[in-house]
Amino acid sequence: MLDSPVTKAPPSLLYMVKQVELVVRSHLDELVRPSGITALQYTALTVLERHDGLSAAQLARDSFVTAQSIADLVRSLEGRGLVRRERNPRNRRELLILLTDSGRELLARYAGPVRELEERMVRDLTAHQTEQFRQALIRAWHALS
Hints:
6 helices; 63% helix; mainly alpha; two-stranded antiparallel ribbon; 10% strand
């Protein structure tokens, strides 16, 4: 009797997305560690760079953290002088979170190394494949949002 090779199913896309996320986060944590922040804090700063003046709830959603954990994250960033909070002039009960000049300087300092990490991630892809990958990720995100 001949032994037939067992064909293993490829890993699921969900598994692969999580693996990529974990390795990116690990590298990003290592990259920004000298500045005294974490990858999650760095992500929140980049969100504010794109959309300054968010509420805590909006920042939590856009930074992929829970509303409960955003309070500690913002408090830590505020203590380091990277963000500040001020009252929303349209809703005095709401505090908006804003990037400070120090926060912008930190992001500028890491822009090159973070870009290099991203380039390393896609170095075996052509420019066209990289753009297709970006568009596929955007469509996948929209499908689940």
